[in-house]
Design a protein that fits this description.
heterodimer, A: mainly beta, 4-stranded antiparallel beta sheet, 9 strands, B: 116 residues, mainly beta, 7-stranded mixed beta sheet, 11 strands, 0% helix, 48% strand
């Protein structure tokens, strides 16, 4: 399975943008890049996913490097509610092995008021 | 639309008892996944089920654990003869279809099992 590498922790100030990096140098051509987050004492929550092109939704933006070996989750204006562990996950398309989510250690984001 | 529902939210069992965890997927979802999060550890996949079928149980402990997703009713994760090491948060997720690369899994709030 392709692996991802994320910083253990990051800090941000409230209402400032946050860029959460993820390295996935062994990504294959059929791997989708997914981001989930887990708020304290809650279940994981889907944030965004993409394959090759940058993606935007109401929660965040996903910037994917041209060679796809890295990606960045962008929270445009961090709020206190965004304090969570953020997971970058690769999912292989078209194979049953891609069904399960393989969570790494993620990045713990702290937001300062 | 109701999200993924899990019950109970908290479950306390004594060693040797059985634990039954229930998961009702989102309406229209026929794929269910169970994950376990041990204290201070990450989430680990346990089992993937579709209606009446176990598709992938590669993450399930070989003994005492079983899962089902019957034609009618919720998915059940059953742990027999619980031990203290089973104390964890158990999360259920559901998705509407099989398209492993791009589909989204929606998680429930979890069941926190404590074994005394």
């Amino acid at each position: 399975d392709a692996k991802t590498t994320q910083p253990n922790s990051m800090e941000s100030n409230e209402e400032e943008p946050v860029h959460l990096p993820c390295n996935h140098s062994t990504i294959s051509g059929t791997d989708y890049i997914h981001w989930y987050r887990q708020l304290p004492s809650q279940g994981p929550e889907y944030v965004i996913h993409g394959l090759t092109s940058n993606v935007n939704n109401r929660m965040a933006s996903l910037a994917i490097a041209e060679d796809r070996k890295s990606s960045t989750l962008i929270l445009h204006r961090a709020t206190l509610r965004d304090a969570a562990v953020y997971y970058c996950i690769l999912r292989e398309s078209g194979k049953s092995s891609g069904d399960k989510l393989t969570f790494g250690t993620g990045t713990r984001l702290a937001v300062r008021p | 639309n109701a999200g993924v529902m899990q019950n109970p939210r908290h479950l306390v069992r004594r060693r040797g008892q059985e634990a039954r965890l229930r998961c009702s997927p989102m309406k229209g979802h026929s794929h269910v996944y169970w994950y376990r999060q041990l204290p201070e550890e990450g989430l680990k996949f346990m089992v993937y089920l579709q209606k009446e079928n176990i598709i992938d149980e590669s993450g399930m402990p070989k003994e005492r654990f079983s899962a089902e997703f019957p034609k009618e009713g919720p998915s059940i994760l059953r742990i027999q003869q619980v031990v203290r090491g089973d104390s964890a948060a158990y999360f259920c997720a559901s998705s509407p279809r099989w398209d492993s690369g791009s589909n989204t899994q929606y998680f429930g709030p979890g069941t926190r099992l404590t074994v005394l």
